Amino acid sequence: MMHRPRRPSPIGSIAAPEIGPRFFRDGLLAALLFLAAAAPVMAAPLQLPAVVEPASEEHHLGKVIFLELVTPDLAATKRFYGELFGWTFRDIEAGTTQYAEALLDGRPVAGLVHRALPASEHRQPAWLSFFAVSDVDAAEKLAVQQGAKVLFAPHSFPDRGREAVFADPQGAVFAVLASSSGDPPDFLAAPGEWIWSSLITRDADAAAAFYKTLFGYDIFPLPASAGARHLLLASRNYARASVNTLPANTPDAYPYWLNYVRVEDTAKMTAKVVALGGRVLVEPWVDRHGGRVAVVADPVGAPFGLLEWPETESKKVPE
Fold it and tell me: Which end of the chain is more exposed for a tag (fewer CB within 10 A), N or C?
């Protein structure tokens, strides 16, 4: 995702959203199954676009640099995100595989992959986070040593780079990418761009340790409710993501990464999600940083967050 030069983006203070138990037990399992089953689709001979255009020399280990959504209804998904965030799309086809690059003001922000879903299958789309690495094969070896499972083995795409998809030791799905075009710079995301990623998991400390081993993060504990953990993951003095404890009322929950798009008015955008055929999973609430946050799902069920953030806030972590 290419960002215009702006102030650095914010320190993440997004706590675990109180989504209902059924979503965690059924919805997230369906999403994980869909990602796992769809991973081989990405092995098709696609000419995927670069993450950064024009190419940069920047590299930020552990930064979420791209997101992709595997969806059973590409046309409807494009309409939804286009009307919601003003994204435009560039279509790519290779054989039976359809891929759409999402753009905001001409800058890449995401990728959408079509995969038909048989009526008998109950699987739910989910956004997949790509973390920057310099060596995907080395990351695969290290991840497996630490208890991760490989869902999509390392594979190279000429303009995109080399990537792989894993499930971490607790089951959360994520991807790594060594971008051929460099990584997006560390500037505050514009409205309509991804601004934050949170891992919701059973054992926050163990999960943070896993990602620290993989990406070299520094870990900072943040205030959390009794019995919960809220950890900030940072590298090079920049906040990259957060790790949160799953709500206590979800003993059978499945860990997952939840990604947030920056918006100017969360309440207004939440209403727009519903008007466009999506649904609200968590109504807007005021988070620690003072902005409103909500969790929603697109019309085919993929969850994501909406997050307000003032221009004055920084992502730099005090040394």
Answer: C
